[in-house]
Design goal:
Elements: H1 3-10, E1 15-19, H2 28-38, E2 42-46, E3 52-53, E4 56-57, E5 71-74, H3 78-90, E6 95-98, H4 105-113, E7 117-119, H5 125-129
Parallel strand pairs: 1-2, 1-5, 5-6, 6-7
Antiparallel strand pairs: 3-4
Length: about 130
């Protein structure tokens, strides 16, 4: 599948999660979450130490998701992304989008090995979905 189709497939769902969501509005983990919210997508922020981000209840990990999600945006350091990929597969999340700076060769390879659809090394969700500051 080419990148345009992978992005269209990723964005064709209703529910998403953001691993690495942040309360700090200048960080990309916050901007990605707000981008989903601006586009009226159902989204679950995931952060191990936060209770709420942007008025949305925050989950400690992907195992706590209350419903299946169509895709997961990952906005974490590469070493953390590698662990998140394992959690995504265990949670039954079929698609991951490693935001620029979150990807690593090991994380991409492991995600594909686990049968996940992977977007990495490409554009940011903020560009593809449209984000307003």
């Amino acid at each position: 599948m080419d990148l345009k189709r992978e992005i269209a497939d990723f964005l064709a769902g209703e529910a998403y999660a953001v691993a690495g969501a942040s309360r700090e509005r200048e960080k990309y983990g916050n901007k990605v979450l707000r981008c989903y919210l601006q586009n009226e997508r159902r989204v679950y922020p995931v952060h191990p130490r936060e209770d709420e981000i942007e008025g949305v209840a925050c989950l400690r990990d992907l195992a706590a998701l209350p419903e299946p999600v169509h895709g997961l945006s990952i906005v974490t350091p590469p070493a953390v992304t590698e662990r998140i990929v394992e959690q995504a597969a265990a949670a039954g999340i079929p698609r991951v989008w490693m935001q620029p700076g979150a990807e690593s060769e090991a994380a991409v390879a492991r995600a594909r090995e686990l049968g996940l659809s992977v977007i990495a090394g490409g554009p940011c969700l903020l560009v593809a979905l449209g984000y307003r500051e």
